[in-house]
Design goal:
about 300 residues, alpha/beta, Rossmann fold, Alpha-Beta Plaits, six-stranded mixed beta sheet, four-stranded antiparallel beta sheet, 14 strands, elongated
């Protein structure tokens, strides 16, 4: 299947000489939720801004459903809804008016039923006649999403959509994202809340210093790069790890009451754990409980970015 967005050798160098993007190649699959992760200044917003026609590219090409974003700008941009980081909208316009105006900007015929549905989905219907300036910060964030959805886009960009918003809005927003994906909308999001990417995304891209350093299915990424830890809660504290267990690279907790065994999930771990438990028994080390934990997406992200520095 043809990707809905195809980015080839995309670079951006500003007049100051700063290179924000360096030959980025990325295909976004139709109907997926793609999370773009990276530290501040990594190039996430620049990449989104180029695809959405806000920033000019220096090199490379971007196709949106086969339409070049420069040669066929109108067709490409009409497919995209963008929820920016900044709360920017007409303070003196009503909620209904500003969402309807956004729809008209894309040449779409009036559709009051669609506008009503969007406002209801975002809990804005009761404020449809209110001036934007009277809305709270969370309501303004909802309004930005409503504006982005006003022209029924097939692609939705969410640039740090839940930064600084309350828990209720975050929950509502992700419920809406899931509903949109079920309708066939492709979602691309940047977020500092890596737990959100871990919960929501189908694939993850990591960008750092303008370079896309990794793109992977989320579950495969966590399988390849995640680590598991087996923690053994000892019946009696140990002074040190027995020498006959040295090959297992066990760590002793600070209070010496736990032994910690770390292993890669991609390795054949079952046999290794069985052998370890037998060796512990042979060494006379007794434990009263054990538990396993696995690396989170945040752990993986931090390690990837650290390797690139």
């Amino acid at each position: 299947m043809q990707p809905i967005i195809s980015i080839s050798n995309l670079s951006k160098t500003y007049a100051s000489g700063f290179q924000a993007l360096k030959r980025v190649n990325l295909d976004i699959r139709r109907g997926e939720i793609f999370a773009l992760l990276g530290p501040n200044g990594a190039g996430k917003t620049t990449l989104i801004s180029i695809v959405c026609g806000i920033v000019n590219r220096s090199e490379g090409s971007v196709l949106v459903n086969g339409h070049d974003i420069v040669a066929d700008y109108r067709a490409a941009r009409s497919m995209i809804g963008l929820v920016p980081q900044e709360l920017t909208t007409d303070a003196f316009e009503s909620v209904w008016g500003t969402v309807s105006f956004s729809r008209g900007l894309f040449g779409k015929a009036p559709n009051p039923a669609h506008i009503e549905k969007v406002l209801r989905d975002l809990s804005l219907w009761d404020r449809k006649d209110s001036k934007v300036m009277t809305l709270s910060g969370g309501m303004k964030r909802r309004l930005l999403i409503a504006k982005a959805l006003s022209h029924e886009p097939q692609i939705l960009f969410l640039d740090e959509p839940t930064a600084g918003v309350d828990v209720e809005l975050r929950r509502d927003m992700w419920a809406l994202v899931r509903a949109l994906q079920a309708q066939g909308v492709t979602i691309i999001l940047t977020t500092h809340y890596i737990d959100e990417a871990e919960e929501m995304a189908d694939r993850v891209g990591v960008i750092n210093k303008g370079e896309l350093i990794l793109v992977e299915d989320k579950t495969e990424l966590m399988r390849k790069l995640g680590k598991k830890q087996l923690t053994l809660h000892l019946q009696h504290p140990l002074e040190r790890v027995p020498t006959e267990l040295a090959e297992h690279r066990l760590e002793l907790s600070h209070d010496r009451s736990e032994l910690i065994y770390t292993y890669d999930t991609k390795d054949g771990d079952r046999a290794g754990i069985a052998a370890l438990l037998k060796r512990l028994d042979d060494a006379g080390v007794r434990f009263k409980d054990l538990q396993t934990t696995q690396s989170s997406l945040e752990d993986i992200f931090v390690s990837l970015v650290r390797e690139e520095q």
